[in-house]
Queue: 4 jobs
Job 1
Amino acid sequence: MSAASSPTPALAAVQAIARAYAAADPAAAFHAIDDYSRASLAHALCTINRYDAGAMRVVRLYSSNPEAYPPGGSKDKAGTAWGRHVLLERRVFIGEGEDAIREFFDDHRAIRELGLRSVVNVPVVYGETCLGTVNFLMPRAEVSDNDVHAARLAGLLALPAFQELARQR
């Protein structure tokens, strides 16, 4: 790359992730991971949640739409199929179409009003411990294998930020 050319959006986002980690800034890392993932997922909403295992609750750390989904918001997941699947079994959740979103999310009306029709929720796991989730919601109803792979990569990219936040507690 010549000095006169500017980096692609994906490369710029990777550089932003690197800068955030060099500065030990989890919030900046989450924002940069959202930007990096947008190139492949074309998502309309990204949220990143910390998992409180004792309360079986997720607490929002980051949102690409803080007006609709402000950081600090939380959702109780005790006794839910989603909580068992993602938080306890540590498996990626794929929700395709409005019926799936309605079945698994209490806030399905807000999701629908934002024009979102599919979701990929990725547990961020270290060892046997789920630290949180990285979540992407898209306006299209279908999720491709490539979408799932891109979302899983975002979860891996978020792991150092989750580890830093756990260390700070």
Note: The beta strands are 45-52, 57-63, 74-76, 93-96, 118-126, 129-138.
Job 2
Amino acid sequence: MPPIPVKPGIYKIHAHIIGPSALVTATEHALKHGAPVITDRLNPLPIEQDWIIEPSEPVPGSPYVIRLAHHEEAGLVIPEDKLYVNSVPRNELAKFTFERVIGGVKILSDKGLALRSGHRGAQITLVPPKPEFQETWTLEFVSPIDED
């Protein structure tokens, strides 16, 4: 499927896994590559679950970067095919494209690997894409980037 455009803004990213609703969540404890990114239940405070999705370059068709909305220096990185959040220069952030699939979108890295959530609490991994619900996500638009 061809990539689809995503309106730049602040989003909650919902996983399609069995059990209660789960969102992409930055954890608090950093490891070697940053803080692991997991799926978790909705938190009352949005600081770990609101994400800015925006083009990596001001050019039509550019892939996207994803950063924490309330800690904008921190964005998603992908060492060893696992998803982390870390404060790195913008050009070191992971780049993503989005493809429409049944029930939502598939989020693909610039290497063509799909984000996969095995279960709530597990770190998000990147895998060769397959038509599985664990690789399907819903982007819930919260607000434009410049609104607080």
Note: The two ends are 34 Å apart (CA to CA).
Job 3
Amino acid sequence: MLFTRLKSSPAVLSIIAIQIVVYVAQLVSPDIAERLALPGSAEGLGERPWSPLTVIFVHDLLVHVVLMVVMLAAFGPLLEKSARAVDVVAVYLLAGVAGSLGVVAATAAVPTWAEDGTIVGSSAAVFGVTAAVLAMRPSSRIFGGTTTQWLAILVAINIVFLFSLPLGSVGHLVGIAVGWVYGRWLRSRPGPAGGPARA
């Protein structure tokens, strides 16, 4: 079963637990989301410099939390098994923060993309974890599809949404790129946590 693998994946389980706890806290105190969310424009970042990190644990809809938890539960344990727990946390944080900064940079480069409100979600971080798994297993089949097919689906979906939800798509694509690079580095890294033998 999908969630049974979490028993041997403490890093993934911890990230999922934080996501759920933060979402429940938001229901109790909606102000929490406002304080942790990413500003919709570059100017607002000065007021919440911590938000590129904290936003990757915040969600505004239950369905979004569920989707991210399921995706992380599906791909996260594969990364934790192939590499180390610290690598799961590193990919999640690096891809998430890079995605957030990508969004901020996009609002500065294209002012018309700036939003009045805030942006939330862990998609960039979760997509980064997924991309890292795909990069480490270039010739494998995962959940019925090849790694190339899964990567193509992730990228294609976000390119399509680039026209209707540009900021989210930019963040997602940056997260995917960071995760892919990290995964390729893990694959080439010498030792028990890297190298072709673990792919």
Note: The helical segments are 10-28, 31-36, 51-54, 62-82, 85-109, 123-136, 147-161, 166-188.
Job 4
Amino acid sequence: MLKSSLFILLLVNIFYSNLYYIGISTVVLFILNLKYNKDLIKHIKRVKFLFFFYFITCLFQIFYTQEGEVIAKFYNFYLTKEGVINFLLNLLRIFNLLLLSWIVSTQRLLEGRFLKYQDTIETVIELVPEAMIMIKKRMRIKSFFRYILKQIKVKN
């Protein structure tokens, strides 16, 4: 039952562009995470930096969309209703995918070969804060990828 309901929520997330449906699926996924995911706070803390970067990218999208009903104008940039709706849709979709992946990983819904990929992805997500520290140290990209791959190999 959980697998099929998560699959339906994934399909809603992919194929619907209505803010109302995406918002309802976000609420449902958040409630499911509260019920099934004991480490929800830990997961949110791990991904908040990555989510912040995506949030900034979505903010740029608000000003990039110049067509539609103008809400406000800043110099030569227009804040439009369609830009705000696109911003919210994209932000909620990414958040929904994160919530889906957390439920799938905590409930171990994947089996066989996919379980190995799930463990690798979890390791990479755990290394995101370390990656930001390495970027601050101005580490070369080649050394950065070697470090990440070495950590994945050690965990597996």
Note: Residues 62 and 83 are 4 Å apart (CA to CA).
